[in-house]
């Protein structure tokens, strides 16, 4: 996404006002698709490693939310975006795309918070838990503009996707969520090494 944004901004900065999913409709579709699928794959690998290291159980809220995040990412790629401003063009595909994006955006903060909370007072892992929890809190705050837009859409005649500059908001949210996910992945890696040494 960063590469696409830098390339696009150099030619047409106003394009950044559009949603990230629009990259899935143009000439850069393959870059967008590969990037999102790699993120989904990395998330799945992080989940597997977290369960193996004992950071969370496979049946936990954290694991379930991480699965939803991963499935949401795949849905965003599998079903292209449709024009929200034209209800006549919206079909099942558009609904799936929107649902996938919504599930992904909401699920990853829930997952990261659920991973961190049980360890917040643990002597050994509390620093990692608090850092990850803090980053997850930032990603939750990044959801606030979208919540505001939805409220405006429900209470006024302004469509929710016009209440805020959605492209900017999405980019802020994605950056915050990916940073939280990266921090979680580093924690899982460190804990995995510790788990191996303890069982050696």
TrEMBL record:
<feature type="transmembrane region" description="Helical">
    <location>
        <begin position="99"/>
        <end position="120"/>
    </location>
</feature>
<feature type="transmembrane region" description="Helical">
    <location>
        <begin position="30"/>
        <end position="51"/>
    </location>
</feature>
<feature type="transmembrane region" description="Helical">
    <location>
        <begin position="127"/>
        <end position="151"/>
    </location>
</feature>
<keyword id="KW-0472">Membrane</keyword>
<keyword id="KW-0812">Transmembrane</keyword>
<feature type="transmembrane region" description="Helical">
    <location>
        <begin position="171"/>
        <end position="190"/>
    </location>
</feature>
<protein>
    <recommendedName>
        <fullName>DUF998 domain-containing protein</fullName>
    </recommendedName>
</protein>
<dbReference type="Pfam" id="PF06197">
    <property type="entry name" value="DUF998"/>
</dbReference>
<dbReference type="InterPro" id="IPR009339">
    <property type="entry name" value="DUF998"/>
</dbReference>
<keyword id="KW-1133">Transmembrane helix</keyword>
<feature type="transmembrane region" description="Helical">
    <location>
        <begin position="58"/>
        <end position="79"/>
    </location>
</feature>
């Amino acid at each position: 996404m960063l590469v696409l944004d830098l390339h696009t901004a150099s030619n047409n900065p106003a394009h950044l006002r559009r949603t990230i999913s629009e990259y899935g409709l143009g000439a850069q579709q393959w870059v967008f698709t590969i990037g999102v699928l790699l993120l989904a794959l990395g998330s799945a690998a992080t989940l597997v490693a977290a369960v193996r290291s004992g950071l969370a159980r496979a049946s936990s809220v954290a694991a379930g939310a991480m699965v939803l995040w991963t499935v949401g990412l795949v849905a965003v790629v599998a079903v292209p975006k449709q024009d929200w401003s034209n209800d006549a063009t919206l079909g099942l595909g558009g609904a799936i795309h929107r649902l996938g994006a919504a599930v992904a955006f909401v699920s990853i903060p829930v997952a990261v918070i659920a991973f961190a909370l049980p360890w917040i007072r643990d002597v050994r892992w509390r620093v990692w838990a608090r850092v990850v929890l803090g980053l997850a809190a930032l990603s939750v705050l990044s959801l606030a503009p979208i919540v505001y837009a939805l409220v405006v859409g429900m209470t006024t005649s302004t469509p929710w996707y016009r209440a805020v500059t959605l492209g900017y908001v999405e980019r802020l949210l994605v950056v915050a969520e990916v940073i939280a996910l990266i921090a979680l992945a580093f924690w899982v890696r460190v804990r995995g090494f510790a788990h191996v040494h303890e069982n050696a």
